[in-house]
Write a structure and sequence with these properties.
Largest sheet: none
Pfam families: BIG2_C, Mon2_C, Sec7-like_HDS
Radius of gyration: 44 Å
Number of strands: 0
Organism: Aegilops tauschii subsp. strangulata (Goatgrass)
Protein name: Mon2/Sec7/BIG1-like HDS domain-containing protein
Structural class: mainly alpha
Number of helices: 35
GO cellular component, one term: trans-Golgi network
Strand content: under 5%
Length: about 800
């Protein structure tokens, strides 16, 4: 009567009233002989909805049987039952007076009845706003006391919590929020209980309650769904019991799949639960959660995008977490595939990024955690978390995930890029694409010149740069201002000290120029060529460092050796020798690699000219020829270092490895240079005259012939008209010089064929420069037969006709 009539004024006294009601209900169960709650709270899981109440028939018989229950015997004696002491008290008999008193009490309870008890809880909907909050607080306290009993846990108040929540569901939002704050803390506290059965029963009760709430449609801007589902998310994150976590996933999955039409703000808690499940250490939980996520994304995607934009962000974060699963690579790759599917769905639903809100789009894509205040109509905020999430996956430690993320990221951009405005594209390049290439280019074996590799590997960056070029060529008209920076990214591969990286860089660079050739202006061609030139120049700087490294090493003679006594007395001698040889080996390998890299660049330059020569003006050709001239001059300088050759010979003999083919490197460089000059002279005479290409050909040819004569020990005559030339004795060449002269022969033959192919007037103009060198070749005793034959052809085909005229 007090509870019903004075409920608005009980305040903290509600706890005493509810404690009495709990004991009344307990006595009813004891009197009926019904099993105690403890009997099923100690078994794994019995669904509370499957509980059945025993019939009230045969009450007398049940009461007689109830007296055999130790708990009843304890109640009859007026004490409390403790299972741990039941055996010790088994001999304590119940007196007849105690039995009669207990039966009379049960008869009194029959007069009260369960209906009166339930009426108090149903009447709670009539309590005022403050009283109902106090009532719920007291009910939660008594429920915790019941559930936490070490010997006789009970669920009476827990079931009443579900009931009163249902009764008071129509309260105004402000009061509801206060009620649920209390209930939420209760469910989180008990759901994290160490008593597994209690925790499972509580979470199942929360499921029942949540299902009732989800039957009601949530009003706009009403966040209550998220509030009443939040205990699931908190328990999922805090519980140490895998059984409880699995139950949470099953409960949330059931709610989503059965009430998906009504879920609004609740999506946030749903994705929080599945995100926690994705990182779980139990495989069954991970796969169960992913199965539901798969169905949500595939079948219910519109429900995600029709609510807040942060809902889609949470969905993407959840899928990204699944990619980190340590149990199933299939789940990880499928999660990435679903990110691609999300992009397809966004495109199908018409989420286009316009330029109407440039200020919003200027935000970095990295700020995709959903914390920023956004407008629902700004479709850019649906694409942002998707692209930024994939960008983060490109730094994953697993190669398959990195590669998959890169491919999906660029596929999304390429397939749906027409939906993006120019300002959004600029943001994508700055915040997503360019950061992929910030670290140094790695080598095929995983090494890098940078200590901050950032878990990137060579294969992943290779995929990324190829995708970048394809994407840029496709959307060049929109992203034209990014030409210089994109070219810099591509040519950064050429800077690598490793041939395979440079080879990929050259291949991608050619793909870029071929894709854009017809669209580029003269200034844009200049930008591309200057980027190429800068990267090529960088490789020469590295080459110089390798040469200096070798020059600073002391290589011992093969016949030099220290006595055992010297080495024993000074072990530093042996250590220094070993260090020098290790450094020599490293320098030789790097030298070979770098010469191969330089030749690769030379070939790329020649191919660039052959493919796009019609697009090049004098300024463009000037840049190209400067690149070739720098490489050939550098090769000539290195091949002229006789001391360096001696060191290479010594070191390679001791290491038993082949020497760097320095002269071959020089020959190949000069031949390519001359072929390009000759092609330019033939293809574009007017441009050749403007650039004085003929003079450049003569200078290079003279330089090559002089070097050959010097190697042969034949110094060019300073005065070709001298009537009494000084007679020199011909000295035999050393084996090394003979070998060098033989290596230089192909280049000289190339020069002779070039000179023989010049037009008569061109040859006549340059004959005063060439004739002294040709005359010296005539008297050169160490030149090969091939050179003499080529020289004969030049005199016969070019000089003879001039004389005969």
């Amino acid at each position: 009567s007090i509870a019903i009539e004075d409920g608005d004024y009980l305040q903290e006294a509600w706890e005493h009233v509810l404690t009495c009601l709990s004991r009344f209900e307990h006595l009813h169960l004891l009197g009926e002989g019904a099993p105690t709650d403890a009997s099923f709270l100690t078994v794994p899981l019995v669904d509370s909805e499957e509980k059945t109440q025993k019939s009230s028939t045969n009450t007398a018989s049940k009461r007689t049987n109830a007296l055999q229950n130790p708990a009843v015997m304890a109640a009859v004696r007026g004490g409390s039952y403790d299972s741990t002491t039941a055996k010790n008290n088994a001999s304590a008999l119940v007196t007849p007076d105690q039995i009669n008193n207990f039966i009379s009490n049960i008869n009194l309870l029959d007069q009260i009845g369960i209906f009166e008890l339930n009426h108090i809880f149903a009447h709670s909907q009539r309590l005022n706003s403050n009283a109902i909050v106090t009532f719920v607080e007291a009910l939660c306290k008594v429920a915790i006391t019941e559930l936490q009993s070490p010997t006789d846990p009970r669920i009476f108040c827990l079931t009443k919590i579900v009931e009163i929540a249902h009764y008071n569901m129509n309260r105004i939002r402000l009061v509801w929020s206060r009620i649920w704050k209390v209930l939420s803390d209760f469910f989180v506290s008990v759901g994290s209980s160490e008593n597994l059965s209690v925790a499972i029963f509580v979470m199942d009760s929360l499921r029942q309650l949540a299902m009732k709430f989800l039957e009601r449609e949530e009003l706009a801007n009403y966040n209550f769904q998220n509030e009443f589902l939040r205990p699931f998310a908190v328990v999922m994150q805090k519980s140490n019991a895998s059984e409880v976590r699995e139950l949470v996933v099953r409960c949330v999955s059931q709610m989503v799949l059965s009430r998906v039409n009504n879920i609004k703000s609740g999506w946030k808690s749903v994705f929080t639960v599945f995100t926690a499940a994705a990182a779980d250490d139990r495989k069954s939980i991970v796969l169960l959660a992913f199965e539901t996520m798969e169905k949500i994304v595939r079948d219910y995607f519109p429900y995600i995008t029709e609510t807040e934009t942060t809902t889609f962000t949470d969905c993407v974060k959840c899928l990204i977490t699944f990619t980190s699963s340590k149990f199933s690579s299939d789940a990880s790759l499928n999660a990435i595939a679903f990110l691609r599917f999300c992009a397809v769905k966004l495109a199908e639903e018409g989420f286009v990024c316009h330029d109407k809100d440039t200020d919003h789009q200027s935000n970095n894509l990295d700020s995709s955690e959903g914390n920023a205040i956004v407008h629902k109509d700004d479709h850019v905020y649906f694409w942002v978390p998707l692209l930024a999430g994939l960008a983060r996956l490109t730094t994953d430690t697993r190669p398959t995930i990195r590669k998959g993320a890169v491919e999906v990221l660029f596929d999304i951009l390429k397939d749906h890029g027409e939906l993006f405005s120019q300002s959004f594209w600029t943001n994508i390049f700055g915040s997503v694409i360019y950061p992929l290439f910030n670290s140094e280019i790695c080598t095929p074996n995983g090494q890098s010149d940078s200590t901050e590799d950032g878990s990137w590997n060579f294969e992943t960056k290779t995929v990324a740069v190829k995708c970048l070029v394809d994407l840029y060529v496709t959307f060049f008209d929109v992203m034209r201002p990014e030409l210089t920076r994109v070219t810099s990214v591509v040519t950064s591969f050429i800077r690598s000290a490793y041939r395979q990286s440079a080879s990929i860089g050259m291949s991608v660079f050619q793909r870029l120029t071929e894709g854009l050739a017809s669209k580029l202006s003269k200034d844009e061609w200049k930008e591309i060529l200057l980027c190429f030139k800068e990267s090529a120049a960088h490789t020469l700087v590295v080459f110089d460092k390798i040469v200096k490294m070798m020059q600073n090493i002391e290589i011992p003679e093969r016949n030099e050796s220290y006595s055992e006594a010297e080495k024993y007395s000074d072990p530093d001698i042996e250590d220094e020798e070993e260090a020098n040889m290790e450094t020599s080996s490293y320098a030789i390998v790097k030298m070979k690699n770098h010469m191969s890299l330089q030749l690769l660049i030379v070939q790329g330059i020649v191919k660039l000219y052959e493919t796009h020569r019609r697009s090049f003006c004098a300024e463009h050709m000037g840049i190209i020829l400067e690149m070739l001239s720098a490489i050939t001059s550098h090769a000539s300088e290195v091949s002229s270092e006789s001391a360096l050759h001696i060191k290479f010979h010594k070191a390679c003999s001791l290491l038993e490895i082949s020497e760097p083919a320095v002269i071959h490197f020089e020959n190949e460089s000069y031949q390519s240079y001359l072929k390009l000059l000759q092609a330019l002279l033939h293809d574009n005479p007017s441009l050749s005259r403007e650039m004085n290409i003929e003079s450049q050909i003569m200078l290079v040819s003279v330089k090559i012939l002089r070097k050959y004569l010097n190697c042969a020990g034949q110094e060019p005559s300073k005065d070709a008209s001298c009537k009494d030339p000084v007679v020199h004795w011909a000295l035999p060449l050393s084996a090394a010089k003979k070998e060098e002269l033989s290596a230089r022969t192909p280049l000289v033959l190339h020069v002779m064929r070039l000179l023989g192919g010049l037009e008569r007037e061109c040859f006549r103009r340059n004959l005063p420069l060439l004739f002294p060198l040709l005359a010296n070749l005539v008297r050169c005793e160490h030149s090969s037969r091939e050179v003499q034959v080529a020289l004969y052809d030049v005199f016969q085909s070019s000089i003879g006709p001039i004389i005969s005229v």
